UniProtKB/TrEMBL annotation:
Gene Ontology biological-process annotations: inositol metabolic process; phosphatidylinositol phosphate biosynthetic process; signal transduction
Cross-referenced Gene3D superfamilies: 3.40.190.80, Fructose-1,6-Bisphosphatase, subunit A, domain 1 (3.30.540.10)
Keyword terms, alphabetized: Hydrolase, Magnesium, Metal-binding
Catalytic activity: a myo-inositol phosphate + H2O = myo-inositol + phosphate
PANTHER family according to UniProt: INOSITOL MONOPHOSPHATASE, INOSITOL-1-MONOPHOSPHATASE-RELATED
Domain of life from the UniProt record: Eukaryota
Protein name: Inositol-1-monophosphatase
UniProt pathway: Polyol metabolism; myo-inositol biosynthesis; myo-inositol from D-glucose 6-phosphate: step 2/2
Assigned EC number: 3.1.3.25
Pfam families: Inositol_P (PF00459)
Similarity remark: Belongs to the inositol monophosphatase superfamily.
Cofactor: Mg(2+)
Organism of origin: Phyllotreta striolata (Striped flea beetle)
Amino acid sequence: MCDCDSDSVDSYYETVLKLTKEAGKLINEKIKIRNKKREIKSSNIDLVTETDQAVEKLLIDGLSKEFTTHKFIGEETVSSGGALELTDAPTWIIDPIDGTLNFVHSYPHSCVSIALFINKVPEIGIIFNPMLNQLFTARKGQGAFLNGEPIHVSDTKELSEALLMLEGGTSQEPERMNAVCENVKNLLPVVHGLRSLGSAALNMAMVAAGGSDAYFEFGIHIWDIAAGELIVREAGGVVIDPDGGDLKRFSRRVLCASTQELAEKLARKLVQVYPEPDA
Ligand code: LIP
């Protein structure tokens, strides 16, 4: 049987949904613990906890047991030296806890973010915030949903009408920090408002659900945006590079918006940062 016929994808979807809910229970059990044990990764504000590792293991073990030929790109596996390669093979792209810093502080905006790519095309996207019981889902060509109800992006086209999302990110490297500050300075006077949930995936889900109109960030990785890419597109939105060109999934840059017009207007206004690509 082909890896991407609809029966196969149905079974991938059911399995991953079950595992995602189990992962959510694990996160809920640990969220209230204060002073969680954590380790530093690329910078003082890029952290990993035992729960990130446990959730990633639960998902990879559970999926590889059922689907023995599938491949994985998992944040914590890559951070400890694992391969970062997207081929045509069915590949699960996993951020076990997107918003780890929030999780460390018991700030209830973190999520499991998981996507399945087949032939380098996103087929399944799931973003689950177990603390607030928000389950965002999408399958290619079938729309996007929040807890089973269809969601759609807003119809905002003007920056002056837009609620924008951005992030400080997980690096305090001066060039990037300056660009973040410049962008805040330039955007704040011209938009409705600026917001930040502390999770790239949840920011994208919020654009998909029409709660905000656009989000951009420099310094993300493919696991932060893989599920969000499909969910935003299936909700009618656009996902591009912050310079206005096509999204490059390993470039560590993303911009998503409710409409192409808004995406282009935002892209033209941004001070750009080009981090070292992941691949
Ligand atoms: C982080 C996001 C955060 C974003 C960072 C990074 P992690 O993911 O939650 O919003 O600013 O670039 O993507 O490290 O918590 O999985």
